[in-house]
What does this fold into?
Amino acid sequence: MLCVFTLFLGQITTQLPDTVVVETRQPVPVAETSPSVTRVPASDATDAGLISIAQAIGGIPGVFAPEQQGEGTVASLFIRGTNSDQTEVLLDGRRLQPGFSGSYEISRYRILGLDSIEVMRGPSSILYGANALGGVVNLRLVDPLATKPSDTLFLETGSYGRIFAGFQAITNNAQGNTPATNGTSVGVTASHDDGWRPNSYRDATTVLAKTAWQLTPQLTAEVIGSVDLAKEGLPGQATPTHLANLNDWEKDTGWMISPGLHYNNGPLAAHVFWSHGGSNVTSYTNDTDIYGTSLYKMGYQLERDEITAWADWKAQRNLTLELGLTYEQTHYNQVDFLGTSSNWTDTIEGLGVWSRVNWKATDKDEWIVGVRQENFNQFAEKTTGELNYRHKITKELLFHAKLASAYRAPSANDLAYGTSGNQPLKPESNVGEEIGLRYESALPNALSWTLVAFENNLTNLIDYNPADNYKTFNIAKARTRGIELGSEVRPAKGIRCFGSATYLETEALTDYQSIVLAGQSLLRRPKWDLNAGVEIIPDDDWTFGLAANYLAVRSDYDFAEGVRVNLPDAVYLRGWIRRVINERSEISLRIENLTNESAPPTAYGYAAQPRSVYIAYTRKF
It folds into this structure.
């Protein structure tokens, strides 16, 4: 039977003993969550040599996260067929800066410093507001109060100039049986890739850190922080009618710092945090192609503040009430360094208030109802709601049904050049439905699986009006629906089988962005995304793994010719071997694209990176 994970490895599991926080903002055992929630342990990903967030989540059912130009490059993120700018990305529950386009460049973030990656598929605006139209990805940092102190060094080299170094340090003041009252965890990475195409180099540095203090048994204070720096060449498409660009580049800088407090005395749990961060992107274009000569140097700067507070009160044994609010302010500044475009500056503010009720009607039945009201200074207000029902069929089998609405706020790019007819934009909307099952065996290493059927109905999608100088307006509609299956099983000692299957139908219900007509499928999303693999551990010293990813029935748009093109079906294979030298050291080998598949993983004109080999060394201190 297929199992939960993808080409990225055989390393994500649905049967996880640890907790997730993404569904409720409170720690909940995975077995008690919706089948649309998946937790990816960071240790599992790094054991297979994976470094980027895109690689680590790419095999989750319903998630398509290909890196466009190969290892470490810009990644797309399609959850259940929604756009990359319709998914919220969080760091320990704090919203990361989505940039001017509203999209998150998830390849900017690395795994070292993380405890896990949590993904919640489907409408999620009740707790997380803007951009949670398609789902949420929460990068959960290592908790230094609950983790044994250690230091880990990771080094890797390989094809196309790959040089990678990472260091993770965890320290606290725990003594014997006395638990820690303060601690710090830090993950630092630096990498260089020449890239396999001309002008596809990338240099990147990231820092993820968390410090926590146990002030009293009920009260914990923390400060989290992140920094990411990158510069990369932008080769562009490579097709018979569109040559690669050899001069374009982009430089990215992002950062965030966020103090917070957590209080828990049993019946009452309360949380508050403030986060302050920003990003600065400089993009340079100087090339000649079929469209003529272009010369631009643009800067995209933003600073963002967020204050979020919420409290859960267990009013009765079977009744929990929740109330929360979020205030956010983002200042945008678009700078034209060469005078070939335009400057623009603006400040967008939003205030959201939400409430939820969790009622356990019986020992087996649970209802969750929520509503959120969002107000903005620049566009129309938005109200979203959510209704969940869960039923424990058996101790190991959970049934879940959900009806929810969500939204995506207009981005800076949507507003910077004016709106059609000067009409205010509305947030993009989604009404999603899903039913599913989660099976978590009570026996160690036994079969676990999830199965979900879903539908998203998208309205007020923001498009560009060709009759009004391509200014933005709310017009487009679309629908996505499908089935997700994930499973893992260990049929014998030292053998683990895993896999996932996603069947996705997408349809534009109106003409959209002048390139997708009503009745056509949305671009780039595969109808079939199948993953399967096996990992064999014959003894304590060796691990062998092989995984395959099959993509079928997908299309893109050739802007040079002005026509849709069908992308070929493709199979991508990856293999890995780990050898434990001693209790502190190990080496590993991974091979990507074993069969040298050339079909584009995501977009027309961006062929797959050829077969690549990487060797890594890990040392624990």
